[in-house]
Amino acid sequence: MVVVAIIGILAVVALPAMRTAPLKAREAVLKADLYQIRSCIDQYLGDKGEYPESLQGLVDAGYLRFVPIDPITRKADTWVELEASPTETEELEPIDEDLGGTVGIIDVKSGASGVALDGTLYSDW
To answer: How many domains, in total, are found in the chain?
Structure first.
């Protein structure tokens, strides 16, 4: 009887932690994916002297094997690509917009709506 009571108490204590475990895992993958993508953008900038045109541009150049799936939205096309402003690219290379020059992406954020377990918005990561 004592053993059953102890197991019951342990189960009640562990249950709340187990409910959020899948979401914690998806959030950890999202953080890792964002770190990897941002690192590849920096490597591309260092190698080529310009920002990549898109995430697909990173794949085409061999910096990523594929565009990762956002673990929160579970889609690969929901990433929000933030373009570099012209002032950020002036020191690299002047861009003539009349000739169709592209600025490129400087950062990527999740397209997921909602609030993470720590209270921050996914779109702010």
So the answer is: 1
